[in-house]
Batch of 3 targets.
Target 1
Amino acid sequence: MSKYIGAIDQGTTSTRFIIFDRTGQILSCAQREHRQIYPRPGWVEHDPAEIWQRTLEVVDEAMRQSGLQAQDLAAVGISNQRETAVLWDRTTGEPVANAIVWQDTRVETQVAKLEQELGSEFFRGRTGLPLSTYFSSLKIAWLLENVSGLRSRTESGDILFGNVDTFLAWHLTGGKSGGIHVTDVTNASRTQLMNLQTLAWDAELLRAFDIPEEILPRIASSSEVYGEIAQGALKGVPLAGILGDQQAALVGQTCLETGEAKNTYGTGCFLLMNTGRKIVPSTHGLITTVGYKFGSSEAVYALEGSVAIAGALVQWLRDNLGLFAGSAEIEKLALTVHDNGGIYFVPAFSGLFAPYWNSNARGVIAGLTQYANKGHIARAVLEATAFQTRDVVEAMEKDSGIPMTSLRVDGGMVVNELLMQFQSDILDRNILRPKVSETTALGAAYAAGLAVGWLRDLNEVRAAWTAERTWRPAMDASAREEKYRLWKKAVSRAVDWV
């Protein structure tokens, strides 16, 4: 049996290929960014062909770094940015247009129209998802209506749809020469086209969005051998795991028991709680989603709170205001002051996601006085992520009835000590950072490893997790609640701005 397992981690801003050993330690890693395309206000696009090229590059680089050959890898898994919609031509492999990214808000008017016609509960009851610009369904519908001749091309069977996992899997397994058109239940659950009960495409939902089923991939489990990689440095390696990035982090953090939860701090912020084999409908602004499904085992479900802007706010402060040269510098700037100076920053650049789901919200900086300086703004930017996380945690506990005793964290922002301590303070809970920080890629690797027997069972997965750092709350309760009260007041100024 090969000693190593590989994972393609295709995210919103970059693509990575990571090779892990049996203990979850990284042997090699390569990463490449891709362009963020903003054709109009509220529109966010990626070039799928560029993402595919970056994937090939990072695979080649990581394999060179490691000195391994394809036969040294037991399998490869994929984790991917979810909801981002790609349509491509099956005969050429070429995308018909840029991918519409999960953050894109161009379908706001269609959301309002469908809410009037059918009501949001028609969709939430079947899919666990509210009507929103967030999910793939309306992005697909928009492309079918706005790319010239595309609707008629779907009728001739020439067009395929997938989120990025499907697009990569198709290309990896042969592309136009027999590529496998497949997705897993976690990604399918984010299209707003899959029924949570049956784990199959729902005919009534397809009619509501006017999307032909012929363009959709086969829905599979998150851990099975889909096929062999057909080219390049990984030729002959089984492709055996697919998980949407946040579900992959849930697995990588080994939140495999009911009530266990993790939060990923990346471009956005995504908190998932394992609810077991029970579908828990949300009445507090959360998403009910598939957590994972390993082979023929029953699906495990999760509650999720999605925050649109987390690390992206730090990037905005860097790129748009030029307050520092590198994102890591925000902590040093924030430490030049003792507190936020009364400033609260609500980053509703494209509306607010969970638990508010207000697409008409816009960003607000509240509490400005002449005393405020760039250090206070930097601190308010970091605190915004922690406040948004508390919003989600409170909703999650109300929906699930399960008190959250601690929170496992991962993602690029967890190296920020100031943010993690404030997160512990404002939640009044311990925050645990794992020894292996690349939990998203690790979750996809675990899924692939289970499928081919590289890992025996979930007990072996659990045994690999250890905490590298724990933060404990140290804030006075009255100060905690006063800060949170002012945060909620600032949010009330941001909602329904347009």
Target 2
Amino acid sequence: MRGGDLDNASLEDVSAYLSRMVSSGDFRVSELCNVVLKKAVLAKTSDIHLEPTNKGTRVRYRIDGVLRDAALLPLTLHDQLVSRIKVLSDLLTHRRDIVQEGRISIQVGKHSTDLRVSIVPTVGGEKVVIRVFSMHDAVFDLAQVGYNEDMQRRLKAVLFDLEGLFLLTGPSGSGKTTTLYSILNEIQREMEDFASITTIEDPVEYEFGTFSQMQVNRQVEFDFAAGLKAALRQDPEVIMVGEIRDVETGEVALRAGLTGHMVLSTLHSGSAPETVTRLINMGLEPFVVASALTGTIAQRLVRRLCPECIEPHELDPMKLELIQRLSHLEGNTEEQTPEFFRGKGCEACGFSGFSGRLPIAEFLSVDEDLRGMILDKARTGTIRRHLLERGWKTIFDDGLQKAQDKQTTFQEVMRRVSLREVL
């Protein structure tokens, strides 16, 4: 299974190969580590987990958001594997009692892939989690991100004004950074002669080389707020700030949006309406939020159905009743039962029924009515009811539509959307 044999091997084949390699005693730890890393890239893994357990070193890949077992290696090899990863990451091999972070660049086929390494000490030994950044496999085209046509049209209408603060929200791993990169690429492609683009990131996940990207460095007190202030002196039209974490960054971002700049950033909140109230609860002035905020998108990632093995799937009456109660889509009435689908499982998708991921999202555009509600410090529920009365579509509605369009399953939508957010 050396070299190109890894390309088409299943995770079960890789696990069996690693077991034979270890049991034969004819192996090098460097080769063992190389197989684990390269197969992760080939399997389009987002994260690699190496965790010491009482049964051995458990190697798992996060594929399409789900952790899948790749191998169970003898615990006697754990320290050697971790040491090898430390060597590749240029970390301290003799320290096992501290948190360490590093980077690895590996070549898989014709493409180079960056790996971000995090190592933490646990009572059973050091746990390693490696984030995989494959520029070749990543999608940075806004048309291919997975938003519906109406959302793309409304998003572009807000973005191409090149002013104000626009936020993406969602939990970690919901594709916010990928969407921001796609937006930046769209702006650069459509308005290159009019838009100077600068980013402040922690860390820089993908190096594009087509616009300026700055890396946060807290050792020299260069955080998001300091980076944003510096970027404003660089004659920018568009600034992307990795995350608004504090009042200072929020204030600078909002005021930059008021002075003719487009500022893109992320914020941790549950829904699009909650993003508005979250800014005010952080301590930012309502009149500044109302004036500078142009819109926000809340999103989650769901697994995409494998196109090779889609089949109809009938939901039980309780789930259909839930859909009727929560959906704001036209046509989902008691007289017309919506049709749903699932993946049967085949070789193309590793018998999972899914292949890749796509976002389900809700888009909020700040108009005059909403600005008035922000000035009045309206609660999230009040804003949400106001939007629904005007035909606003929630993240649940978007997920439900995509489930009916054979893109995902109803179960996936319910796994990623909290009922608290849609009730």
Target 3
Amino acid sequence: MAAESLAQTPALGSRAEVVVVGAGLAGLACAQRLRRRGVNVVVLEAGDAVGGRVRTDTINGFLCDRGFQLINPAYPEVRRVLDLPALRLQSFPAAIVVATGTGRRTLADPRRAPTMLPQVFGSLLRGGIGSLREQIAFSRWAFRTTSRRPSNFLTEPDIGWGQALTDQGIDGELRHRVIEPFLAGVLGERDGTTSHRFTQLLVRSFLRGSPAVPWFGMQAVPDQLAAGLTDLHLGVTVESVKPGLVRTTDREITADCVVVATDPSTATRLLQLPPVQVRPLTTYWHVSPDTPTRSGAIHVDGDDRGPVVNTLVISNRARSYSPDDRSLIATTVLGLGDQSTERAVLAQLEQIYGQSTRWWELMRRNVIPQALTSMPVPLQPRLPVALADGLVVTGDHRDTASSQGALVSGRRAADAVLADLGLPAMPREPMRA
């Protein structure tokens, strides 16, 4: 938040109708919904800005999100809650570039990425990826995933996505060189154990939408959600919660309801909930004086020659992320990377892009221990948010591991609070065009 906004924030008192602990997407969505109902809401955030895991750092004019993150305007709750035109979204092509020892091949959706057809045809001339049998099997799976209603996925028996693809004949070169590296970046794992139900929901959103980043970075999303919250306090660490009481490092606040909207491990500790499995990721942000590729598509290494699961020149499509003609490259690896990992990353990026990385400069290394919430089998997309005695918990770990899940969870938490307060429920906001 801007300094002038903080200067207008009232002093933190000892009494509130509702206290929301955590100013990530779920907490902010909950607080805004309660504010519109006229409820007195106090939001406490331990960090120095709102957003939780959705943050952006400006380094020498470059916008480096904390991890490679995208917002998908196809998500229904995103269209209900956010003013998308105000975010000035910069979208990425519906395509993926697969780098191997024999060159780079582009796979794209011709309906949504028509300008990439020359690259696609060139790739086809060099030979397709995977057998015809596997390509047909994948096309059937993708068509079924995009054409069905999301609620239909939840009625099927659930297994890991790896076994599900094997059962459907997707088990060859296409899978190992394209599908697995792509899913590794969005699921945070390569062992195929994530729920097939959740994987289908996620892939469906990618195939139906155009993932993008805001002009001012992903930080613009929580900043927009926080607008109008007049009792939001940053740098406040909550030590414990119990029904009707929040204890910070220097005071106690009584409340009719308490909403815990923190990261999964903190929520587990504060509320003595069962532990939530999370998946760590590390993102390296490099600056190159030259453009290693003109493509704005995600690149994966089809030969699996190192730790990189995906990489892209983000400034090719998100021009605001670079202050000049230099290129900003975002590269993600699984787990907690360090300096030795970066050396392996740079060596692999030379193979992926086919250019030297000698003059690349590391702007930021984001090590994110709780980057993604695990979605194991069987998928449980609607865990209870109302606990007992006015305690409510929210976050994507109560729904699905996505911005959609975080925002839906925030709405559900707000509705639970309204019920506890004896106030009428609010209708959902209409989806914007």
